[in-house]
Each structure stands twice: as C-alpha cells, then as structure tokens.
Amino acid sequence: xxxxxxxxxxxxxxxxxxxxxxxxxxxxxxxxxxxxxxxxxxxxxxxxxxxxxxxxxxxxxxxxxxxxxxxxxxxxxxxxxxxxxxxxxxxxxxxxxxxxxxxxxxxxxxxxxxxxxxxxxxxxxxxxxxxxxxxxxxxxxxxxxxxxxxxxxxxxxxxxxxxxxxxxxxxxxxxxxxxxxxxxxxxxxxxxxxxxxxxxxxxxxxxxxxxxxxxxxxxxxxxxxxxxxxxxxxxxxxxxxxxxxxxxxxxxxxxxxxxxxxxxxxxxxxxxxxxxxxxxxxxxxxxxxxxxxxxxxxxxxxxxxxxxxxxxxxxxxxxxxxxxxxxxxxxxxxxxxxxxxxxxxxxxxxxxxxxxxxxxxxxxxxxxxxxxxxxxxxxxxxxxxxxxxxxxxxxxxxxxxxxxxxxxxxxxxxxxxxxxxxxxxxxxxxxxxxxxxxxxxxxxxxxxxxx
Length: 451
Prior knowledge:
Layout: H1 4-12, H2 18-21, H3 33-49, H4 51-54, H5 64-69, H6 73-87, E1 95-98, H7 105-110, E2 116-121, H8 124-136, E3 142-146, H9 149-152, E4 159-164, H10 186-196, E5 197-204, H11 210-216, E6 220-228, E7 231-240, E8 243-245, H12 247-251, H13 266-281, E9 288-290, E10 299-306, E11 309-316, H14 317-322, E12 334-338, H15 340-345, H16 350-355, E13 358-359, E14 367-369, E15 378-387, H17 391-400, E16 403-409, H18 415-422, E17 425-436, E18 442-449
Parallel strand pairs: 1-2, 1-4, 2-3, 4-5, 6-10, 16-17
Antiparallel strand pairs: 5-7, 6-7, 8-9, 10-11, 12-14, 12-15, 13-14, 15-18, 17-18
Helix pairs in contact: 1-3
C-alpha cells in the first residue's frame, strides 16, 4: 500500500516517539511521513492491544480513532469461542456478515469459522486496509464490501451470523450509550437482521442498561458481560431468529471450548474449521424450537479474562429473583469481592445460594465466609482484623498501616478523602475494605489476599 521507502522508514522508527518524529522531515522524498506516523503509532498500540498482529510486519493500521475503538485480541478471541459454540451442529455451508467492519479485528477472528465471510464498511480507507490485511492473514473466504451495512447485508442473505458493533459516538464526537443513540440503531433494524440471519452477535457499550436492552430487543438468547483484568470492556448480546434448528440445545450447551487462535496460521485454521463444519453438516436437527426467550430465562454469562485464565459465572434473571440473600453483621474469616462483570450484570443474591457465602449489606456487594471458597468468581481475601470509625481506631490505623490498597463499598466518602484523613500511601500487600454492614454500622476490614 506504500512506497518501499515508507515501509523502511516505518520499520526503522517503529520504537521511536511519534511526537518527536513528526517534527523531523525525512530526507527521502519517497517517504510519506503522515502515513508513516499513523503506522508507527498503530504498531505501538497493537503491541499491547493486539500482540499477534504486532508480530506481523505486513499488516497495515488505521488512524488513531479506529485503533482506540477496535476490540482487543483478548476480547476478539472470546467472541470466537462463543460463535464456535453457536455453530456446533448446524448444517453448512455457513456464512457471516460484519455490518460495521471497522479495523476488522473481530471479523478476522470470526471469519475462519465460516465458508463465506463478508466485511462491510462505509469508510473507503478502512475497506482498503481490510482488503490488504485479510489477504496477508490468508482469509480466502473473506469478501470486502464498501457501503452501508444496513443496506448491503441483505444482499448476502440468508446468513448464519450477523455481527454488529454500532458506532457509539454522536456527530460531535461525544460517546453515546443508548441503543437509539448509536449508529446503526439496533432496535430499529433488528427485524431486518432477524429475517436475514440465524444468529446476531451485537457488541454494545458496557455502560448500557442490560435490562432496558432486553426490553427493546427481541429474540435475545444470551447476554455476555466481558471484563479484562476485572475492567468491564464489552456487552455482547446473542439474538436468534424466530425459529432456528437446535437453538435450545445451542443456547444451553456446556462451557465454551478454549481456543488459542494464531493469526499467523489463519489459513490452516480456516481449513480445520471447514472440516469441522462438514462433519457437523451430517448431523440433522431433531427439533425446531422457538428462539424467543422470556427476559427472566435468558442466560447471562459474566466473564473475566486475565493472564490466560477465564473466570465464568452463568445464571438467569429468574435465578437471581428467586434466590434468598443471607446477610450478616459479623464478617467471617474470608472476604470476597465479585468480579466487575457480576456487579454490572446484577448477580447479587444468587452468589449466596451458589457458594454458601453471606452478604454484608444489600448495597455493599461484599461477601464473607468462615471457610475459604476457592472458586468464588472474584477477588478473595483473608480478614486479619476489623476497625470501627472511632477516633481511637482511626489513630491506630494511621499509626499501624502506613501503606495499603483501599476499596470503598457503600460508604459516604471517597478513597482520596480517606487516604488524606488516615495518611495512608497507596499500594503494598495490605487491603482495607471500607463498607457498611447490614445494621448500618460503618467498618474497616483489614485483609490480605487469600492464597
């Protein structure tokens, strides 16, 4: 896509400060400095966000805004796991369309699972980049279509899967959250998608109200709240058309298979996926089930991805509604803080029933037990002491604990205010949880991480 001299400049300065490079005009007139800076900045972002892509020197990167908005390699791999499971037992040939192609990260991980894959994007520059990168990755089943995904997607119907990641910025560049404020409006086009495909995977803002989304959208069979290193990154909704073969079996299938897709061997994986699909094609459907679930019956998957590990907690709104929380005014020997995904999804009471833990307060969302619960989906701590907010206790904390990590839950103050008041530095291996018990007593729990 660039003159060889530009490529050479990019590789020579790949580790350099982009801001300083921008102040120096290259002596070689064949070097496109503006494009070179985009590529160097994109590569430096990809080293952390897309490490496998960063290892391939032939890939081209888009401008900064597209790099910021694209999925990470970690979350793209998770989407691949989900879709791989959805496809099990389906008759081929299989096809997909990404209505909002963007940089194409999600598309590049999903496309190898299909016989035909259509990347659709309105921005011509992103289409050119996708054309180049998909060839580099060896995704022969991929086809790039320039245009409006809402209009072009039906051209390729019927499809097995439609992937959509609506733009979450308005005309002024401000971030948006509500479905109706995003482009395209998923609520407005959901019937068109359902009529053209068996499944739809929608990537939405992690700030979106899940329960409101379930009221606005029909045919949702799964909700995935995805966090990376306990930071909520994505909300994924799986929608199904009115009638699909084996939808019930697919939606309640066992845990997802782990995958370590290597983009450098995308062609081989594509061939392997095709072989798997041919085997699946020989399996005929036993029944055709209505895919429209009641909101309270929809499967909610809370995921935390970190350091090659995947923590998963699955439940339904009905389970949460009927579960009875067990409260206590006496913290036990162990303290538990649920993963961010669970807090976002609203899995509060069912944790007591599943793990035999007790809740400190309806609004504190901290749990305790007398014996360790090793499989609790969140951070686990051993309680080493507790303090009240008496003057004597506060003075003792300031004297005995010079450094600690402070977490506040259901307490009328901020971490910064408490640090200033207690004169405690940030960091170290000690943890202070400042919260409220069921009897409305404020308490400080001193903890160490449980092994």
